[in-house]
Give the backbone structure.
Amino acid sequence: MIKDRLKIFAGDVLGSLNSAIVALPQALAFGVATGFGAGAGVWGAIILCFIAGIIGAKVPLVSGITGPVTIVIASIMHALNADISSVILVIFMAGILQIALSLTSLPTIVKYVPYPVISGFMNGVGTIIIIMQINPLIGCPVMSNTINSITSLFQNLNNINYDALLIGILTLAIVFAVPKKFNKIIPSQAIALVICTIISIKMGLNVERISEVSVGLPALTLPKAHLHEVITYFHYAVMLAIVLSAESLLTVLVADSLMKTKTSSRNMLLGQGLGNMVCALTGSLPGSAATMRTVAAINTGSTTRLTAVINPIILIVLLFWLSGFVAQIPLAVLAGILIKIGYDIIDVKLLKVIKFAPRDDLYVLIIVFLLTVFYNLIVAVGAGITCAALLYAKRTADSAKLVHKTVYDKDIEKLEKLLDKDYKHKIRVVHIDGQFFFGSATQLISQFEDLWGTKILILDYSSDALLDISAIFALEDIIIRLKAQKIKILLVINNKDIYKQLNDLGITAQISEDKIFYTELEAIEFAKNCLKNKIKKHHFWQRKK
């Protein structure tokens, strides 16, 4: 028993160490990229990971600022003219929204987000990071958004700092060249950070550096919130909360997949929300559960939430121990590391098979990608989900069709031979195949125009799916059209809930109770008897004449 516990503890320690080595260069780079500073990135990772680890999920989730969060914070900084106090208020409100979200069932929705939306979003975020880091890679100031980065790049080509470009290219060479097997032991980002910083110091390169990193405990400050500012900045808080929560939920899905566990999304979001509120109160950067760091911890042996407690302790030790060294890190080195992170975020797996992907999925992916890169992350995801839903509705509607079967019986055939005039008397069974909902209702209505000559129509809806209001109105329209054509309608419903729904809405009254059946065979037998009686009566009156 003690041996097993020691083994689990050792795995958590090793996982924490490995994830901390991954987290440090990323937190430094992301902190600089947002404009908050390197120290804010590291302290945010420390505070969030610790609080979320104690309160949140039981699996070893390693939290901190990530690529998508960096892009959102940078865009908010730009929109609010780099007013740190206003951005801190936005972060605080985002934490509150995450807590509110944890009290609802909405966190479970993330599993239903279509893959093309996620892929388009991640590809967009990776592309943004790469584009925004090209300027600092050549020794020029980082821009706040993609368009400004592209525009300024052409101007900065005449002002390249070749020392920065040299050390940046060396950084890229290291992070891309280190083999994957070796990368699992010591992350290539940490290797590049150490080697390139030492080379830049020894060679006396003229490059811009981090300069200062706060190693003291962050001061607790309350955000100055006035009602006007809360209302004005609320939409920024919603945007940030969505990104923070979505990335955390996706990371949980990955962690559960690796560990064969089932994590409570609500508890996880509660911990993340409280952690981000404390980050705001200390002037640190918010974050989410980080997929790359969490996977690094699990692959090294982490199995419990203790990892999320040990990881911040290791980061504190590294920050205090290496503060002098961290101040000498060139920004071009951080830019090279971020470019590699951006590349890792891009969904290379999908790009390899993109030519085989369905056209609808490609449309969604491209829309999300372009909106993410050139407009707004939340609008991109919203537009992607909307497009995916509409395309799914269209595919479902296209698959819904009417299947006609003409029903004959030997007795009916004999009777019909006696009366040539009555050859048009038919019984038809029409099955509504597929989902009968707002998307397919209009299409199905048009198909009922082909029923001329039918005397008795058996409408069979065998699905268990309840009808939406559009489908109910469509069914009512179908009944009215068929009645206008003097067609007798029989309805087959084998689901009590659907029957109750139609009965409550007065649809069954338009048909009459005796013409609603539970099985198709019952309806067919009823229709046969009706037709036989009609033909017999007609034949009788013909003989009388």
In short: Residues 103 and 304 are 24 Å apart (CA to CA). Residues 415-423, 437-443 have pLDDT under 50 and may be disordered. The chain has two domains: 2-352, 400-544. The two ends are 101 Å apart (CA to CA).
